[in-house]
Amino acid sequence: MRLPDGTEVPRELYYYGQAGEPVFDALLGAVKMRYSLLPYIYSVAHDVNANNGTYQRALMMDFRNDRKVWDINNEFMFGRSLLVAPVLEAKYTPERAQSKSRAGIGDVDFLEAKSTKVYLPAGTKWYDFETLKMYDGGQEIEREVNIKSIPLFVKAGTILPIGPDVQYSTEKPWDDLEILVYAGADGKFTLYEDEFDNYNYENGAFSTIDFSYNGKSRNLTIGARKGSYEGMIQQRTFRITVVTDGHKREVKTVNYSGKKVSVTL
Fold it and tell me: What pLDDT digit, counting tens, does each position of 221-259 carry?
């Protein structure tokens, strides 16, 4: 990466320490999170391309009836399910960072607990992505943070596909996805897939699978697959995991061949 003044900034993780050091581990954790969310990110990208959707959404776009979000400019929705509250105020000041290490971080305790305030929009419940704790919307909470964490919340009713642990995006196929269902509301999601490395999707070479969840009956419906592309996964497994307040439990394994399936969770 090159800054406007021409300075080269190294991007490789090994420039920032080694495994077991706070900065390195924080960067590695962020990379792993990004890979695990690729099925969601890729599907959001399809929504952007096909339906004029947006990656980043001002809170007022989805919670217009909550007047408190109209002027919030330090939080956003990523897609329609994830609320991100970046930490914009420095928690570890330069005065404390006397540079003596490769990463220039000195002896600062980057794991020391700090806190930041997050407003959760009204009209739904929210799950902390990391702790799974559930909160009522319409309130401001104090969220503990350190260098390894960014406040990330999941809207109740969300159906969130989690990809495999990989070193690069196409290392493993998505033939054994974990499907997280965040209880507390109805929800829907469309899983999008294509050949990943070309523009054949512009000519219809892609597939979609619709998921819908009825919170009252606790019924999850996986719709019939639509579309096809070369190399498409014909037989696959969905591991259905239900998230409730503070808990996560795998409840069903669904063998899916493209036909509609309904399961009670």
Answer: 999 999 999 999 999 999 999 999 999 998 899 999 999
pTM of the predicted structure, to 2 decimals: 0.89
**CATH dotted code for 54-155:** 2.60.40.1180
Burial (CB count <10 Å: 0-12, 13-18, 19+), residue 58: middle
159-264: CATH topology is Immunoglobulin-like (2.60.40)
Other CB atoms within 10 Å distance of the CB of residue 218: 14
Q: How far apart are CA 40 and CA 46, in angstroms?
A: 10
Instruction: Output DSSP code: residue 182.
Output: E
SS3 of 89-122: CCCCCHHHCCCCCCCCCCCCCCCCCEEEEEEECC
- What residue has token string 């969300």? 158
Report which secondary-structure segment, H or E, holds 192: strand 187-194
